[in-house]
Each structure stands twice: as structure tokens, then as C-alpha cells.
Amino acid sequence: MTEAPVLVINAGSSSLKYQLLDAENGEALAKGLVERIGMPGANIRHEAGEVEIRREADVPDHAAAIQLMRQLAAEAGLDLEHTPLRAVGHRVVHGGRSFMRPTVVDDHVLAEVERVSVLAPLHNPAALQGLRAALDAFPQTPHVAVFDTAFFAELPAASATYALDTAIAKKHAIRRYGFHGTSHEYVSAAAAGFLDQPDAKLIVLHLGNGASVSAVDAGRPVETSMGMTPLEGLVMGTRTGDIDPGVVLHLHRVAGLSVDEIDTLLNKKSGLLGLAGTNDMRDLVAAVEAGDDAAKLAFDVYIHRLVSYVGAYAAQLGGVDAIIFTAGVGENASAVRAALAAKLEPLLGTNLDETLNEQRSAQTREISTPDARTKLLVVPTNEEWQIARHAVDVT
Ligand code: ADP
Q1: I need a surface site. Which of 7, 118, 320, 382 has the fewest CB within 10 A?
Q2: Ligand 1 neighbour 358 (Cβ under 6 A)
Q3: The dihedral of CA 76, 82, 86, 87: what is its sign?
Q4: Ligand 1: which atom is nearest the Cα of residue 211?
Q5: Nearest-atom index, ligand 1, CA of 335
Q6: Gap from CA of 329 to ligand 1 centroid (Å)
Q7: CA 218 from chain center: how many Å?
Q8: Among all residues, which ones are annotated catalytic?
Q9: What is the predicted pLDDT for the residue at 2?
Q10: Hey, what domains does the chain have and what are their CATH numbers?
Q11: Would the CB of 328 count as within 6 Å of ligand 1?
Q12: Helices (DSSP H) in 196-280: which residue ranges?
């Protein structure tokens, strides 16, 4: 390694994920996860090559989590006190209208991230805690905020605009922002590189617990399924995705649910979990195979929504060269890929190769036959590497 490594931090409200990596080649020197911050029984898992350390500890806040990370890194042979870092890259979910690209963090940026927290009340405050703790711990190193929304900041206006009263939308910053942008950016660039086709028309399916789809034309995003919040779009592990807004009104007026109850229902108790009692695709597919009717319906609704999005995005792009699967479900759930490919075949000529679809690999790979009109690819996402590259680019 020629350059000093980059530390990437992804802070959740009660968790902190980190990775120390070489921004040139994406090689991870160490990574770890602190969970249950501020709760009894907090624990940390730290990995460095073959070494893995697990520990339960008292971790009252994100600052303590970073101290613990340093301590475990030192135990695993890496002294972060004295190892020069090239930069610290932070994942921040919402950049609002303020941040169109990765940004070096200063007091003004911190204040602005705090201001746009109204748009992501569950996510941005946690990122701020991580940012502040890391700024204290590594005061000599440049810190860069990389926003989940940034890749989609230049969506065409026709895609970003809701057909809502313009003055109200403007006043309250209501538009489609899109999320998972770091993943869509990484995966679409990796796919274009794999295909050796920089001008490719791509549809990227990021299917994790949260799920979103984007349409990318020659490297530029033209559509994405998540909107002002990550609730819009595909059926997800616990979120509804698209739903008639009239249902929300009905739940309040007729069913008598409070706004907070509706928020929890739509975000945490719906999607696959709400339909079939599990948000894990492995369990869902097993239940379908065992003949469970609720699981079958949930799977069908999930695929139906995906097909609708892919069809719409193929039309918006005016054709599609490749459809790309990524994230936990996309990279692993061959049954999801097979069901989608079967439905798309007549329109798009996706020609799934069933043997390749069943093979497991951590590499970017094609799973359609060589004569497919629309290629199907699996591209493992790597948001940490993308964040590290951005952090290096702007410092
Ligand atoms: P997150 O959105 O939390 O980052 P991930 O991208 O890690 O999610 O995806 C998590 C989901 O991936 C799990 O809920 C699970 O349904 C799915 N998944 C992981 N491994 C497999 C597998 N081998 N087969 C099917 N689904 C899988």
C-alpha cells in the first residue's frame, strides 16, 4: 500500500460500523461493528485479517465506541494513535438540498447536517453523533461527509418532482431525493466497467432489508424508487414501499392510528414482515417452498413490484443493456433473481442461465446466457470503498 489508509464510519442511532481500508484497491485492513451503544450488553466485533476479537463492554455513546475501536485495533496490532490516516469518510443518509456531493466537514457542514435532520430524523442525528465523536478522536485528519442522497442530487426535474402544490413543496423541501446513492453509484460504475461500456443503460436493483432501484444512463442517474424518504418504492423487509397516500389518511381518520403509530406501521411492521411474518428473504423462500400461502403472496407482491419498476425504468431509459442485482437479497437470493428474470424474459430477453444463477461468488458476474438481449449481472456492493474513494478525492 502506497497511501495511508482511510477510515470509514457508518454511525446508526445505537450502532457504529467502521472499516479501515486502502482507497486504491478497496482492501480492508480492519473492520468492525459496535452494537447496542447506550444500552446494557453493548458489544463489539473487530476483524483484522485472520484475527477476530469479540467483546461485551459498557459503551455509553459513540465517543466511547470509537475509543473501543482504537483499543481493539491496537490489540489486533494496529496502533491508530500513531498510524497516519489519509481521511475519515462518514456515511450521512440525508444531504437535503444543501449537499450535492461529498463534502469536507467543518462547523458549517455540521450545522447544515443538523438542519436537514428534519428530513431524516432517524438517521442524520446518529450520523452527527458519529461525526462529532470522530472529529474529537482524529482532530488532525480531514473528515468527509458522503451523503446517500448525493448521487441522485441531479435527477432530472421530471423525476425528482412530486405533483404537489409548488409553493408548499418548495417551502418544505419536498422532492424525491433518493437513497442508497453510494451503492447505486458504486455498482453502476462497476457494472459499466465489467461490460466495458461506459455509456451503458443500466437498471440497478439494490435489494437489502431496505430496497431501491435506479436507472442509470451513461453514468448519470435518471430515476430512482426511493423518494423524499426511504419509504417510497419497492416492497422492503419491513417497509410498505409505494402505497396510496389515501391509505395513510384512512388509517388516521377511520382506524384512529396516531401519526407516530402510522409511521411505525409503514416503516417497521409492513413489507415482507407485515405480509408473511418475516423480513428475512431466506426464511421467506423456505416458507414458500414449504407451501405457506402468506409467504407465497408476500413473495409474489415483492416480485410484482420489482417487475413494474424494471418495466417502467426500461421505458424511461429507452432500452436497457443490463439489469444488476446487489445487496443481501440481490447478491444471494437466486429464487428472487429467477422469478424476476422469468417475468422479464418475453419483453427484455434476459435469458437467465440457471446454473450460473445458483453459483455463489463474491465476484461481479454475469448470470444470463451469452446471447441474452438484456444482460443480468450480480455485482457485490461496496459502499465503504466508494466512501473511501470520495474521501480521498475531495481532500
Ligand atoms: P441492509 O439493508 O440491512 O444493509 P443487506 O444488504 O445486508 O441489508 O441485506 C439483508 C437481507 O439479505 C436479509 O434480510 C436477508 O433477507 C437477505 N439475505 C442475506 N443472505 C441471503 C441468502 N443467502 N439468501 C437469501 N436472502 C439473503
Answers
A1: 118
A2: no
A3: positive
A4: 2
A5: 25
A6: 5
A7: 21
A8: 148
A9: 59
A10: 6-147 (3.30.420.40), 197-383 (3.30.420.40)
A11: yes
A12: 245-253, 259-268, 271-276
Of 214, 217, 144, 145, the C-alpha closest to 181 is 214
d(CA 101, CA 246): 35
Pocket lining: 282 vs ligand 1, CB cutoff 6 Å = yes
Query: Which of 329, 340, 379 to mutate to test ligand 1, by most ligand atoms within 8 A of the CB atom?
Result: 329
Enter the DSSP assignment of 149. Answer: T
330 vs 308: CA distance, rounded Å: 17
Nearest CA to ligand 1 atom 14: 280
pLDDT score for 38: 93
> Which residue's entry shows cell 423524499?
228
Please, where are the H alpha helices in 220-289?
245-253, 259-268, 271-276, 281-289
User: Could you tell me if the CB of 329 is within 6 A of ligand 1?
Assistant: yes
Percent of the chain with pLDDT strictly greater than 90? 94
Contact 328, 364 (CB under 8 A): no
Residue 87: other Cβ atoms inside 10 A: 26
Q: Which pLDDT tens digit goes with each residue over 328-383?
A: 999 999 999 999 999 999 999 999 999 999 999 999 999 999 999 999 999 999 99
Global pTM value:
0.95
Q: What's the pLDDT tens digit per position in 22-80?
A: 999 999 999 999 999 999 989 999 999 999 999 999 999 999 999 999 999 999 988 88
